Amino acid sequence: MSNQTQPQTIKVDLPSPPPSVPELLASVRQATEDLKAKDLVEIDVRGRSSVADYLVIVSGTSTRHVKSIADEVVRFAKKIDVMPLGVEGEREAEWVLVDLGDVIVHVMLPRVREFYALERLWTVGDQPPSSDDEVA
């Protein structure tokens, strides 16, 4: 009999592939709808940002509502095996950012949303100039 030890086998479950961006967006939509978030806007930032493919911006009616919406987005993301890369702003809950990798969710109070105008910032140049903007 030899006193050699047998090699130890470590079993590792390989992670399943991450959900597609449309699945992730659908999960975010469902989470925000369930908690009656207001004015959902999805902005496609592919080609304009290396950080994410989509920004989702929604409003809550109070700081408690904003925090609850953000928590629900995190809960729904975890259901599809997406762990948030970060959640910022929960303490003040006027603007909570949930980073889901390909999708970044901004949950904001209406006054904060109006002040920072993220929709305008990320959509400048998307629309052709209207005839009112052209100089005759």
UniProtKB/TrEMBL annotation:
Key words, A-Z: Cytoplasm, Repressor, Translation regulation
InterPro entries the UniProt entry points to: Iojap/RsfS/C7orf30, NT_sf
Subcellular location(s) per record: Cytoplasm
One Gene Ontology term of the molecular function aspect: ribosomal large subunit binding
SUPFAM superfamilies assigned: Nucleotidyltransferase
GO BP field: cytosolic ribosome assembly; negative regulation of ribosome biogenesis; negative regulation of translation
Keyword ATP-binding on entry: no
Gene Ontology CC annotations of this record: cytoplasm
Keyword Cytoplasm recorded: yes
NCBIfam families: rsfS_iojap_ybeB
Family of this protein: Belongs to the Iojap/RsfS family.
Binding partners and assembly: Interacts with ribosomal protein uL14 (rplN).
Role according to the record: Functions as a ribosomal silencing factor. Interacts with ribosomal protein uL14 (rplN), blocking formation of intersubunit bridge B8. Prevents association of the 30S and 50S ribosomal subunits and the formation of functional ribosomes, thus repressing translation.
Name the record gives this protein: Ribosomal silencing factor RsfS
Phylogenetic lineage: Bacteria, Pseudomonadati, Pseudomonadota, Gammaproteobacteria, Lysobacterales
Gene behind this protein: rsfS
